[in-house]
Amino acid sequence: MEPLAIRLHENDNVVTAKSNIDAGIDIIEENINTNQKIPVGHKIATKNIAEGDKIIKYDNIIGIANENIKMGDHVHVHNTGMAERTKDYQFSEGCKQITILPENERATFMGYRRPSGRVGTRNFIGIISSVNCSATVCKKIAEHFTESKLSEYENVDGVVSITHGTGCGINSNGLGWELLQATIAGYARHPNFGGLIVIGLGCEVNQVAGMARSMDWSDSETFKMMTIQGIGGTRKTINEGIQLTKKMLPILNQDKRTECPASEIILGLECGGSDAYSGMTANPALGAAVDLLVRNGGTGTLAETPEIFGAEHLLTRRAINKNVGQKLVGFIKWWQEDYLTKFEENKNQLHQDPSPGNKAGGLTTILEKSLGAVAKGGTTNLVDVYQFAESINAKGFTFMNTPGYDVTSVTGLIAGGANMICFTTGRGSVFGCKPTPSIKLATNDTLYKHMTEDMDVNCGKILLGQSTIEEMGQEIFELILSIASGKKSKSEINGLGDLEFVPWQMGAIT
Fold first, then answer.
1. Under CATH, which number does the domain 112-252 receive?
2. Exposed (0-12), middle (13-18) or buried (19+): which is 303, by Cβ within 10 Å?
3. Which pTM does this prediction carry?
């Protein structure tokens, strides 16, 4: 008979239900009998756990029993609390020798090599607003270029508006300002853009002319700047933007995909709508794909600082040196001691429970979620740690400080240079982002079949015994190369990604 529950480590005192299990059912492989109905993805105690004792999953502490828990009981938020952690980061103690394939043996994909030397996986024209006041103008310009109007430009993936809700009423110094500037600068140099038009209103705090000076921008055939006030109003600016874009299209259409090594891929790693299976299937399978990418000289970047909380020690052990590990710990401390205290007036927010959807899927504490989330990063050494939107230059496994909010996190990754995104989900996120393709990885077979038009990969095959984590990692890696070469992801087929540019806002709005 198929096992009714999944055991992740011999030292664990809980197992996870593979399906809905009624009360009074024998779980033979664990020699226990269920005392209550156990929802799919939820935990079952395999031994008696006294009040105050540790609850162990992944061979790590995920919480503390708030009451006496009997063998066979449902273990979840009603009887589990957060654990006090021992902060032993063991910097670099888990580092290992990583073998990188010689250049002539590396996997390849068909990409757009830019004059900067970076390689794009798409060839877009971007219409970027400096401020929310110019967002509608940017949107109208992009909307003019329908699929039929672009049909003669086979090497152009589209015209996309990159708009946001800030740019004015903000302080022009401090971290909030620095991150906004870094984000726009990152998108402006992104290799998935072959052409760009930056549009402002004219009187905003975030001036186009100011960005041009600080970011060393200059007009060219494929890079233009203007303001609505300077051109003479909404209609004139839309018309001017359309005419400039029309001139760019035949230039971009001359770009051709060429064979490029997989070392040119910067893969952003994200999860959203997680469930209990995320840390068992999609996340470790994506981690196996990241290991393959690193072996081929490429880069994988984990993010979402609040969602590694409680598992950061697993990453500091893999840091190539103490300085890299300390950078990661520094961001954790900044969240706890500075950011949340200053802006949220709640220093304990980093300790909060997972979202309602996460809990419905079986995740009980942020520690449990974090232990599954870090699996996306694979097993290789942590070679560098970046601030939000900072340019990702290292080869290998890296980390970026971002919020847990998916769209803002991925905005930072793309600004950093991510030309591919892999997004794991157990509840059914439909996230897409432009200009970077987003590959959706379903954690379970039910989700994949229910939302097959949105899911690219069925990692639920691991639970069904149809694939191993390593085999699924190879499948994901090959799909990354295929989509990087021009095959459309499900989110691209569905037309998603025009509204997912959300810079990280902080501080007072005046």
1. 3.40.50
2. buried
3. 0.93
